[in-house]
Amino acid sequence: MTSRTVWSAAAFAGAAALTLTACSGGSDSPAPTASPVTVAPTVVADKTPAPTPSIAPTWPLTGVEGKPVNRPALAVKIENTHQARPQTGLDQADIVWETVVEFQVSRFIAVFQSKVPDEVGPIRSVRPMDPIILAPMHGLLAFSGGQKGILPLVAANGIQPISHDAGAAGMYRTSDRAAPHNVYGTPKTFWKSANDKHQDAPGQQFLFARSADEAAAVGGGKGTSKISYALSAAAHPSWTWDAKAKKWNRSEDSTPATARDGKRLTATNVVTIVAKHPDSGFNAQGGAPVPTYDLVGSGKGLVATGGKTVAVTWKKKAKDEPLRLFLSDGSPALLAPGNTWVELVPKEDGSFKVSS
Fold it and tell me: For residue 238, what are the β-bridge partners?
């Protein structure tokens, strides 16, 4: 072996020794430590919208929950004399308005929409206050006939007339009562006669709470057992609270008022409206003045619900606007879901009394 070869081997051996020493960890220097890494949690946004509260639909004229049918309000002019009682269909009306006409007698405007009675009557003639009351509903009005000057007021206020004298379908005379107290009608037929302009359901006339407990009179009224009315010399209805049935029971003077099938006439709400009762300018038999009511404006009233009553102010902005009720603080006076009877008390000479 040459000297050059010996030197190369020695050099290689020395380098190998150094390499082994470095790899053996013999150095005093610590190994480098990795910096800690913080990983934020992954948050996935919930893009699902909050559920919309489910509000059950209600019938427009009663506030009762259900599946409202899109049919127009049907008003029927019903007599209220001794010869006419007991009447047919009043117990199924959504709203009944009691008005004083000529000769001091009262007459009803019964409005149907949520229920369909088989028969209604006895049906009598139209009066000047009817279009003022019914214009906001833009519905149908069934009546036996009327004066030439009054008849045009019906259509002029957006109401479709259905007149027995004009030969309207669905009206007939019965043989068990004497004329003129024997005109009756079939609501199903009346609704079928609705023209293209009178197909839709009415808007709310009165405003309703979602439950009886939330009604204005129940929450802030005073306990009442009876409301007695002197609408005129010949009209003295009254309403007595029936706690068991949770209804107001109607009487004519001291006689319980019933439908022809014997059912007591009852109301969930009784609304009292005090309004001027002027001469309309039309005359009845013998020149007797035919009155009307001034219902555009405001006045005093009373709401009875749930065995309690509360004073209200009524307001009506225009003929075709609904009459609305307000409490003393200006908030709406809400009624309980159910049927309503409205007593129109003449401001000049009518009155009512509330008994605890």
Answer: 228, 251
Over the stretch 334-346, which tens digit does the pLDDT of each residue have?
999 999 999 999 9
Q: What is the C-alpha separation between 287 and 282, in angstroms, rounded?
A: 9
Give the distance from CA 278 to its chain's centroid: 30
- Contact (Cβ atoms closer than 8 angstroms) between residue 162 and residue 143: yes
Q: What is the reported pLDDT for 22?
A: 41
Task: For residue 127, give every residue at least 6 positions away whose Cβ sits within 8 Å of its Cβ, in sequence order, or none.
Answer: 77, 99, 101, 107, 146, 150, 290, 292
Average pLDDT of the chain?
90
The pTM is what? 0.85
> For residue 34, what pLDDT is reported?
52
Instruction: Give the C-alpha separation, 109 to 75, whole Å.
Output: 6
Tokens of 118: 């088989």
Using DSSP's 3-state secondary structure scheme, residue 153 falls into: helix
Task: Give me the residue spans of the domains in the chain.
Answer: 74-355
Question: Which two structure tokens, joined as six digits, stand for 322?
Answer: 């609904």
The contacts found for 13-21 with CB under 8 angstroms, 24 or more apart, are none
- Cα–Cα distance between 351 and 348 in angstroms, integer? 9
Which residues on adjacent β-strands are paired with residue 48? none
Span 74-355 CATH architecture: 3-Layer(bba) Sandwich (3.50)
